Structure formats: structure tokens, C-alpha cells
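PROTEIN DATA CARD
Card holder: Pectinesterase inhibitor domain-containing protein
Chain length: 168
Origin: Eruca vesicaria subsp. sativa
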Amino acid sequence: MAGRGVFQLRFTVVAASTAVLLIFIFSSDVVDASRVRNMCSHTAYPSLCRPLVKRITNPRRATHRTIQALEAKTKLALAEVARFKNGNQAITTCYATLSDAVYNLANARKSIRKRDVMAMNTFLTAAVSDYGVCVEGFIDANQVNTVQNVAVDLRKISSNCLTLSTLI
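Structure generated from the sequence above:
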């Protein structure tokens, strides 16, 4: 009889431990999700922030990931803009500023690895400015096209990136 009681006691302890462990695991996922939401809630465009930093709760890593994504999207946009730059001054200006943005983002990425927050913020600010110049060129020329739409999205993401960098 005593053997059966010990078995039941062990089974109860294991079941209770498993339940506590499962609660801890699921609650940590909720905490991580809320940290990402809270981090992105500081940005001007949270809906653009969340997909880029999902499952990241460290502001430094979130900023680094956003810089990487922004750099990749800018390179794609640069290739697209290169096809249309002949004969359109706004697109030519945008091509030049997107090239500058790629340079600034690469330096921001290097700065974040070196933990040089001041330099990183300087390069990110320059990138935000580059995207703004591109968008303004289209507004001044009264043009609306896909290049402008892409530049607007890149400017929004760069603004988010700069905001995330202030959380470091």
C-alpha cells in the first residue's frame, strides 16, 4: 500500500511541475510579444515595425535587424530606380539619395556592432534625410509613381529605425 501512495505522490509532483513549467513558457511568450508591441509602440509606424522585429525584445538587436531590412529594401529600390533614371530629374535625384542612404545604413550597421550609438544615430538621421529628399523631389515635380511610393515606405521604416535606436 505504501508503494502506491509514493507513486501517486510522485505523479502529482511531476504533473504539478509540468503545469507550472507550461504556464511559465506560455507566459514568457506573452511577455515577449508585449515587449515587441511596446517597443514598436514608440515608433511612428508600428505596423511597419512589428514584422521586422518580431520575437526580438532587445532594442539594440531590433535596431540592427531593422537597419538590415531597410538596407536590403533600399538596394532593391535602387535597382528599380536605376531603370527609370534617364530623363526624369526627380528619379535621378532619388537614385543619388538612395545611394547615399545605402552608404549611411552600412555605416549605421557597423556603428551598432561597435556599440557607437552616437555615430549610429548620426548615420540613421542622414538616411532619414536621404529618403526625405527623394520624396520631396517627387512632390516638387508634382509626380506620383511607384518609385515615390517605395521612397515613402523607406522613409517611414527609417524613421522607425531611428526611434528604435533611441531605446538603446
